[in-house]
Structures
1.
Amino acid sequence: MTPARRVVTLPPTVLGDDAVRFARDGQRRGAEVLEIRTDLHAPDAVSPEALAAVLPLLVSERGKPVPDAWAAAAWRVDRDLLDASGQHASLAAPPGKLLASHHASRPLSTEEALQLWEREVPADALVKHVEPMTDPAHVRTLLETQRRMVERFGVTRVTVLGMGAVALPTRTLLARNNVLDYVATGGTWAAAPGQRLLDDVVRELRGADRYTLEPPLRLGILGTSIVHSRSPRIHRQPFDRIDLPEDGPVEAMVDALLPHYAGFAVTSPFKLRLAKHTGSALDAINTLVRRGTRWESFNTDTFGAHKVLERLGAREVFVLGDGGATAALRTMAKDTGCTLRVLRRADIQAPLTGAGVWTWPDRVPAPDDLRFDGARVAVIAYGAPGRRIAAEIVRRGGTPVLLGAAWFIAQARQQRQLWESAT
């Protein structure tokens, strides 16, 4: 199966010559199509000819009509099947350039979706069907909708997408048989919720020639605010960043994805919830491994915790926070001859001395009265979040000890061995 063509959407704040530079940067990083939308840019905000000279141009009509100059420069013109009143809309486009699309307002059954596509569509048109996702279990329906649409229109014409906070893993599965894969370039801009990062898609495709006709089961990381996670860089592909809200339906997510994923890395704030959901004897887990029709859970954070306590080399260590990482530290404290003093937010009343570990995620603000008196404080986050936590420790009178990479590598090695045993 030929990989889907990677589509990036021009952000609304990028205009003129900057738009051409954006297109060139996207092309350098692996984008294959550039989308411009009539709801994001005025007709004279960009030069369609200059953009089309860099990447094939997908022009999408969203509320405002497509300018003639855009249509002339376009590789494809995206027009919706229905107008705002629900009636058949015009599918007029230059010959060979139509992409007929439908953006549903609610999740549909496969039969409901197919009824929308009973309208006659030119034989040379691409077709795109998009639905919102509120329930991860809807992945089964969208995969069936895609299969039936491919039967009707042919494998070289169909794209089916889910959108929403729980849609990303569904989009990765649909991409195996889609013609187009709409991806985000990174930073704060995404054209739609649920898009994968362009760099992650390209990283996966570098190993695509190793895949057989049936692609391998995927791996992924589940968490909140995980854009800086290094897991996709070191684990075998395909490996997906699945970023959910803190109150997101992570339990339903792992259940729905059991047939499609070999395992997951689990990070904050889901370590305790998924331990309970999978019936683990552990208080917190960070690894799920598929065993036939069920998930088996593990906590390889203990390997990272051992490394951090070993590096601190202190007999007594205070721990800021009492979540999943602290559970791993408790497990390993005896092995390293260390006594832990776990401090919840309300327990902090005086400046802290000695050696400690900061377990709060970067997105969780520290207590206002937290102060250190020369304490050495291990930072177990890494990358930009780790640097921000380190700066906060300095501001409050402590000395940060950057051990996030040591923790991460130690636990990741064990995760890799476990995932290789998945069935």
2.
Amino acid sequence: MPLPDTFLWGGGIAASQAEGAWREGGRGPAVSDISKYRPNADPKDYAAQHHVSLASIEEAMSDPDPTFYGKRRGIDFYHRYPEDLALFAEMGFTVLRVSIAWSRLYPTGEETEPNEEGVAFYLALFENMRVHGIQPLVTLAHYDAPLHLATTYNGWTDRRLIALFERFARTCFERFGHLVKLWLSFNEIDSVLRHPFTSGAIIEELVEGSLEQACYTALHHQLVASARITAMLRELHPDAKLGCMLTMLTTYPLTCHPDDVAATQAKDRLMYHSSDVQAGGEYSPLALRTLAQRGVTIPIEPGDLDILRENTVDFVSFSYYMSMTESVDPTVERTPGNTVFGVKNPYLPSTDWGWQIDPVGLRISLIALYDRYRKPLFIVENGVGMRDVLTDDRKVHDDYRIDYLRSHLAEMIVAVDEGVEMLGYACWSPIDTVSLSTSQMSKRYGFIYVDQDDEGRGSGERIRKDSFDWYRKVIASGGTDLT
């Protein structure tokens, strides 16, 4: 079955990993500006990479040198976006996922009026995309909350952030809604449970009580905020759509032992915790029972459940990079994934960062999600980070990336043939950007090589990789030619 003519092809980037210009245009400090590249740290040690303290925040903010703070410079998309958009258009993109830096519009998050320089930047970006025939898919919160909200409120643990986020979202809908019809509220909203500071602006040493309780409190506030702005968007722009975005951490039992199957089932129950609310309109009673047994309560206030039930999302989007397995055996080998650790699958190969490559897992994920929610799906992150080599003649021969994407797209098409309704596919990422997890440039995903190393050295030149021409052919064929 061919993909529908309306199927959107493209890629995705995040403001915090691409824009740079962290002190330009009135932008305020964001939690992403604290992320530090640690050349001597194990890139697979996510706990070390993401842990933040008041002391490390003070140290980072007193250091004006961006050498080890890669997200402060990104790839200079802030200044070079016309060049980058032209390259995306050359590949035939019909969609580009971007995010709006909250602190570029509201530097501290508490201002009553937006920063007009920030508004002007995004207006120019979206207008340029329109000229190229590229539809924006815009994420409102993508790991870059204003730093002030972390140090003043301890982030999303404080319910007052709901109103501040609503103000930010209203500005985005009112000022950009004529150009943007596809929105996402929170990137990988479930990730606050894995990296609380990055996703929830939570500083652990400011937490009273358990960190797990703080994370689920923050998550509930984000879910309520997402439902509120869904209602707002429908009032302001009835023709627009808003989706949720989850981390699809597809997990298999390591063995057919019933205990391994039960452990996997329990893990899945919490993986779907957020999307069950956003797409289904209510918390799973089984998930709530599991949390209660762990001493976690959801801080539901009067009216919250009505808001969640009445404002479910229009579509479900997700990231998929790898799968993992689960076992009750404490001696089994574990391996990194998308900011998580899972039991290593002996049947799958791994990248240099330990992520296991599983194309069939994408098909399994699509079928599971569509069967569960019966809403259109959108793959908004899928790709492989590798150490690309720039040859002497300025080429990058990345057959490994083509192989990865070809095999995953083939499985996506099988899922569509089996009846899954899809809106589009946006790979991560179409151009090399600074890595979320390690703040490196050397972990590259793009079809376009950016001449910049882990410490910011390089010309910033954009160079087409072999995969660039391959993806252009895929798009031109509507996905029928993956050779």
3.
Amino acid sequence: MQEVLHPRDNEQHSYILVTGANSGVGLATCCRLINEFVTTHPSFECLTLIVTTRSSDKSKDTIRRLEQHLERQSKDLDTPLKHRISLQPEQLDLTSLRSVQTLANRLIANLPHLDVIICNAGYGSVTGVNWPVAMWTVCTDLVNAITYPSFKISSVGETTAPQQMSTTECSSTSSSLGKVFTSNVFGHYILSHFLVPLLSASPDHGRMILVSSIEALPSHLDPIDIQALKSNKAYESSKRLADVLALTSSLPSTKPFVQRFLSGSSSSSSKTIKILDNEPEDPNADTRDPGIVLTDNEYRAPASSSPRIYICHPGICATSIVPLPLILYYCMMAAFYSARWIGSPWHTVSAYKGACAPVWLALADKEELEDMEQTEGKGKWGSSCDRTGHERVMRTVVGGWGLGGKMGEPEMANRKGTRPGTREVTKEDREGFEELGRECWRQMEALRVEWEARIKSE
């Protein structure tokens, strides 16, 4: 790990990790974190921003751009921001579980605690555009066409490179995982689990912030194909999965699995990660499928130091996730601005405005945030804009869940930015969403336990 010069140790110090920080919403999130931390926190408080990229070249470029941002923001200040803000570059390939484990071990060995993980990195698998469909839908229904696009062409069945494994026997013989699934969800899931001890040591007990998408619809996720290996909507499936996991993370029916996930793979005093084979045996566990045997009766309420899980999305930003020639990129920008002027609240267009929701969740007062989710229900927080471009955070309707997981929310269907055809959440919808959440948590925990056992301890 590169040596990092931290601000003075006797000052209050926050640590925030942002994955996929080299471009787009990830880089904008880092810039916005710097700006808002400086303006909302006392001058004696300091921040270490841990930014991950996939290569050393991207890491150097990201740090260079963030240092330039710090210099620009310091121009009118008596004291340069580098005395309050330190940058810590790290390399991480989320499609490699060994890379995930290596980073987690390094952070556990070198950080006193971790306040926030912003799980932003991802992979879209988009290979092109169905232009006839794109032109027809944009001309006939502009806002919905570019909010919930049906014209993207994506690859099917992409897998990661074979993971390095130990000789531990497990329930699956495959040495690979779904690439989009692993990059967007499972890699972050494993990383967050490994880092639970650092998160729990935070004064606010830590936050896991999953960055989803407004495109995630109920039809995109098939729990029988949770890795979306057979789907041509693997990206949208991964984002719907993130929604389901986050929104059901505090329900009684998912407690057995969430409790295991939040138990972490090491104690806060340990300097290395313990693979499950080395953990004390659970006499009630069936080692052939640890993720399936848990029942509600086995649940032990998480300690008050357990991290909290939140979900957000950046609205619709003009990023490079869909490869386009320059002229078509400008056409896309014009369409986005037109949708905003028509009245769409979700077309943030710029990545900096798109970073509004994740940064707000990262820096918001803990008691205020928990009170909002306790009163209004657990929700999906989105970055939004008015016609003039003023951004704000707005709760987003999620299919089968609504705004806060409550039945009969009368304002939901007529809420600005709600997808046409959305109806009030019924009892059957709510029960189905909760059952889906339990099944997704069960499968994710089963996969986590299996793959942890398959990776050699460093």
